[in-house]
Every structure is written in C-alpha cells, then in structure tokens.
UniProtKB/TrEMBL annotation:
PANTHER family: DIENELACTONE HYDROLASE, PROTEIN AIM2. Coiled coil: none annotated. The lineage of its organism: Eukaryota, Fungi, Dikarya, Ascomycota, Pezizomycotina. This is Dienelactone hydrolase domain-containing protein. The keyword Zinc-finger does not apply. It comes from the Eukaryota. GO terms for molecular function: hydrolase activity.
Amino acid sequence: MLARLAILGLAGAASALANAQCGAVLKNDGEPVGEFKDVNGTQIYHSYPTSGGSNTTAILYLTDIFGVPNPQAKLLADSLATAAYTVIMPDLFKGDPVPLDALEGPGLNLTDWVARHPQEEVDAIIEATIAYIHTTLSIPKIAAVGYCFGGKYVPRHMTASSGGIDIGFIAHPSNLLPAEIEAIAGPISIAAGELDATYNATHRNTAEDILMSKNLTFEASLYSGAPHGFGVKVDWAVREQRYAKTAAFEQALRWFGFWA
Ligand SMILES: *[C@@H]1O[C@H](CO)[C@@H](O)[C@H](O)[C@H]1NC(C)=O
Ligand SMILES: *[C@@H]1O[C@H](CO)[C@@H](O)[C@H](O)[C@H]1NC(C)=O
Ligand SMILES: *[C@@H]1O[C@H](CO)[C@@H](O)[C@H](O)[C@H]1NC(C)=O
Ligand SMILES: *[C@@H]1O[C@H](CO)[C@@H](O)[C@H](O)[C@H]1NC(C)=O
Ligand SMILES: *[C@@H]1O[C@H](CO)[C@@H](O)[C@H](O)[C@H]1NC(C)=O
C-alpha cells in the first residue's frame, strides 16, 4: 500500500487511498466513471459498484453549491460506490449551480443565487429522488451524505414523518438550524473542520447538546487543519487536509456499514 501510494505520488496522476472499509477507494483525481440520467426533468448522476452491490441500501449524495458538474463531487460519488453502494446524486439547482471558479471572482452574488433556489424547491427535488430510489430502483433503505449546502438537507429528510433518509452523514454543514437537528430521527454522523467558520465551535456545541438531549445515535468528529469544504475538495498536497478528507470518507462508510 505504501509502495502504491509512493508510485501514484511520483506519477502525479491519480491519488487513491485503499480503504479498510470493504476495499473502498477514495479517488481524489482522475476521470469520473458514473453517468447522468434525466429522471423526470432532473439530471441525476449515478455511480454503480463494479460488482455485487447492495440491493438493500443506496447512498443519496446531496451536494454543496457547486452541484453535480463539480468533478470532485463526481469522483467522491464514484469513491462511495466502490464500497458496493449505488450512489445517486441529483442536480439540486436545475442546471444553475455556483460555477466552480465563482467564489474567486467578484461576479457572484450569493444572496441572489440562494434566492433562486428556495428551500421548497430543493426539498421537492430530494423527495422526488427518494421516491425514484424506492420505486424505480427498488432499493428500500437510503443512507445519505451531505456536504456544506447539502449538509442542511440530510437532517431535513431524516425526520420521523418524512420516512426518507434512514441513516445520515454530513460534513461542514451550512445554515443547519437547531430545529432541523432536533427533528432528526435516525443515526447521524458529523464531520467538522477546525478552520471552518460556517460550522464553527458554537454550532458544533449546539448540535452536540441537542443530539445528546434527544438521546440520538450520533458521532461527531473534528479534524484539525481542515477548512470549510474539506470533505469534498482539499489541497491534496497538504497532509492535514489529505488526512481530513480521507478520514471523513471512511467515517461515512464506517457509519453506513454499521447502521445500515
Ligand atoms: C415529474 O415532475 C413534475 C413537475 O416537474 C411533477 O409534477 C410530477 O409529479 C413528477 N413525476 C414524478 C413521477 O415524480
Ligand atoms: C442483488 O440482486 C441481484 C439480482 O437479483 C443478485 O444477482 C445479487 O446477488 C444481489 N446482490 C446482493 C449483494 O444480494
Ligand atoms: C445581491 O442580490 C440581492 C438580491 O437580488 C440584492 O439586494 C443586492 O443588492 C445584491 N448585492 C450586490 C452587491 O450586488
Ligand atoms: C459562530 O458563528 C456564529 C454566527 O453564525 C457566531 O454568532 C458565533 O459567535 C460563532 N462562534 C465562534 C466560536 O466563532
Ligand atoms: C436512550 O437510548 C438508548 C438506546 O436507544 C436507550 O436504551 C435508553 O433507554 C434511552 N435513554 C433515555 C433516557 O431515553
């Protein structure tokens, strides 16, 4: 394994880490292997296990604001699929994600963008995707991952009344409200970054207090040197970031492997 890593490092190409969890492999670069399908007007990225996948549990991937075109999101979906799950990643933004380079330039008005994607519309897309997994794909159980923006929507669809998501993992969630945490009904795993101002120490403490007071099944990890977004995109050359992304990936799969 060390030799393989060294070779990959020298080649400067694919950076992959073999994972103890069912032989899953985290791919940080390279070409995505999944496919888009139009499901009743929504573009949904599908990534399949190479063989013998789970017929009982699918992974629903709820993206950050960069949405489904982001190569890092597709590669992460592909990586989760290597743990023998079908991974389903819907376009939550109707073809209008934040462009990958937008945060670096002055052109982006995030207030405006958020207003174009009201919560009810995003919720409706998620509900339709959940129905698609249950009925068209005939997979009864849903484990969900949510990053940043998507980290708010996993809890929103994990309530006792929603019957949507059964098991959840979220990393560096944004705008996650106490009421949304209180309503969580299933096992939830949270990955946070020390350098993330969006899900900061105050938010983390609030979330953990609620989860404990509600007697929920949860885990919460904090990764040092990890910035906002670390679960999806890191500077792979920085050791702490590389560790944080890899560990968050393993955290999600370990959680699903045990609770699904
Ligand atoms: C398809 O989408 C339309 C709205 O775009 C919705 O009214 C309808 O219920 C959807 N059908 C299914 C099967 O999800
Ligand atoms: C899933 O279902 C297919 C088709 O029925 C079957 O061939 C396969 O063995 C099943 N996989 C598992 C892991 O049960
Ligand atoms: C951003 O968009 C909002 C809503 O459309 C608007 O009120 C605000 O003035 C805009 N901000 C900038 C800096 O253009
Ligand atoms: C976290 O952010 C909130 C605003 O969303 C702020 O009120 C709070 O003071 C921050 N906490 C820390 C420890 O920075
Ligand atoms: C908390 O949950 C555990 C496991 O589900 C259960 O055994 C225990 O009775 C619960 N405690 C309270 C105070 O509800």
